[in-house]
Amino acid sequence: MWFDPFYCAGVVTLALLLDRLFGELPRFHPLVGFGLLASWVKQRLWRPTKRRGLLAVFILLLPVLPLLSLPSIWWIDVVILYFVIGGRSLCEHGNAVGEALKQGDLVLARQRVGMIVSRKTAKLTEQQVVNATLESVLENGNDAVFGALFWFTVAGPVGAVLYRLSNTLDAMWGYKNQTYLQFGWCAAKLDDLLNYIPARLCALAYALGGNTSIALKCWRVQAPKCASPNGGPVMAAGAGSLHITMGGAAEYDGYICDKPMLGEGRAAQASDINRACNLVRLSAIYWVVTLLMLSLLVTIF
After folding, report:
1. I need a labelling partner for 234 at 20 to 30 A (CA). Which of 69, 120, 134, 276 fits?
2. CB-CB neighbours of 269 under 10 Å
3. pTM surpassing 0.85?
């Protein structure tokens, strides 16, 4: 029943409400458990080869396929989608960094941003902390919310689960260092493939939620300069929509990435973190509205 836009709109709305009310489970969250399982598999299969990485991804994602045979029951779909998305948690972590900066506690802000980004944070300046947080909120607004809603609509709960698990593997293994360059290749490419369409729809939603013309221009001009084929459009459009600039060098484990400047306008500030969170929430609302409009068109024609 998930291909019915009205049904999808109802399930998505309820899942978003649950996420808004309760956030992520503090204990025994399925994605946390999957992360632990992925670490266990990596310890036993790791070799610096693409073949081993492919095998690891196959082993971890194959058990999800039996879910295809399950009947579509609305409350089960709601619960599954609720477990898959993480909008409230994303914004809580982002705003926690903002609060630390407002209190003038740069050390605490570095610690908190270290919980949501993979770059090294111990020596970040205040501006770099703000930039890192905004990049994470905007990019993960697609990964943790919009992309999951898209794949639920396209392929039901199995699609949403497979998308989120592949995204988790990319977050764990998709690094261009000696450990993961080959082993994490499959996880990174699968995530790129699954994110190609939703990332661009998310970028469009970000653009519609703020300075649309600037956002579209930043997306067109700046996104191709980004290393990530999907993160680029999302972050460029998001920064343009908020009418701010962000970017610069970032140090990861084993390499330094010189990120291009994204957006247009003044330099990003701590207060912009909550604005980015609102943009993420608005993008989800736009998706629900789109589904309702599709439902109306189906009814009429």
Report:
1. 120
2. 16
3. yes
